[in-house]
Design brief:
The protein is mainly alpha-helical and 276 residues long. Among the domains are: 117 residues; 34 residues, no CATH class. It has ten helices and two strands; from the N terminus they run H-H-H-H-H-H-H-H-E-E-H-H. A two-stranded antiparallel ribbon has the order 1-2. Strand 1 and strand 2 form a beta hairpin. Helix 3 packs parallel to helix 7 and helix 4 packs across helix 7.
């Protein structure tokens, strides 16, 4: 009887476990509903309206003329300006960010410099959009604070400079692209071992040039090379110069053979001494 009762209780417990799991899943779905509602209202519905409106006229009829207008003015000029701005800001932000990150991680820099730069970069990388545009207009606009101050000093940056031009927009983009590149490059530079830098400098590299290649074992290897040297394929390790006294040292195998192999004259002297 006891065994039967225990079996019934275990069956009841096993049958109640899926019900608890289904209830927990329902509560989890209820917790995700606000997220899906937010995504639908601010992302999915506007995107769907844009896609549907691209193939409709003002009267609601289907048309492809809206797509054909992309190849007419002023849309090609806008695309060209966008590509030039993206390339210029990306190159400038990448180069300056790498140089600043390398300078921050230099050995002679005080310790408080790195956390200060990381904190500022984390804050500045998120400062974008309308607030960033208004900040630059209030600072470097036609009636901005810096523009008015320079005019009092006799320096007029307009009309040669404009925030609506290529370099003006690139300057605005650089405000958050430079800190973002600093945050991305600091972990990459920290991943380079100090032994790699020392080996590169010992091999004659004036500027640190490290080539990441795939080693024979599938691991990342580093091949430093001096200025003007050509590298092709997997680099071979540097050969050490042969010392003059290295050839005099015999290997263990040769030492054993030399100790065991004796000349006939030595054997004769040994037998003559024994007979005495």
């Amino acid at each position: 009887m006891a065994l039967a009762e225990s079996g019934i209780q275990s069956a009841v417990l096993v049958g109640s476990a899926p019900r608890k799991r289904s209830r927990s899943r329902r509560w989890a779905l209820l917790g995700v509903l606000p997220f899906f509602a937010y995504i639908s209202i601010f992302l999915l519905i506007p995107t769907g309206e844009l896609i549907v409106g691209a193939f409709r006229t003002a009267n609601g009829a289907f048309t492809l003329s809206n797509l054909a207008d992309i190849f007419h003015a002023p849309y090609p000029q806008a695309f060209e300006f966008s590509l030039e701005l993206s390339a210029l800001s990306a190159v400038m932000g990448g180069m300056l960010g790498f140089l600043v990150a390398n300078a921050v991680l230099h050995h002679g820099v005080p310790r408080f410099i790195r956390p200060a730069f990381v904190s500022f970069s984390g804050m500045a990388a998120n400062f974008a959009g309308v607030p960033l545009g208004f900040a630059y207009i209030a600072t470097l606009g036609t009636l901005g604070v810096v523009t008015t101050f320079l005019q009092h000093l006799g320096l007029n940056i307009y009309p040669s400079f404009s925030l609506q031009g290529l370099f003006g927009c690139a300057l605005v983009y650089m405000y958050f692209q430079l800190p973002l590149m600093i945050l991305l490059m600091i972990p990459v530079i920290e991943g380079l071992r100090t032994e790699w830098r020392e080996s590169a400098s010992n091999l004659g590299c004036k500027l640190l040039r490290i080539l990441a290649v795939r080693g024979p074992a599938g691991r990342n290897a580093v091949a430093p090379w001096p200025d003007g040297a050509a590298v092709s394929g997997t680099p071979s390790p540097p050969t050490r110069p042969q010392r003059p006294w290295a050839s005099r040292i015999s290997s263990p195998s040769t030492s054993r053979t030399s100790s065991t192999a004796t000349s006939p004259s030595i054997r004769r002297t040994r037998t003559h001494s024994r007979s005495r």
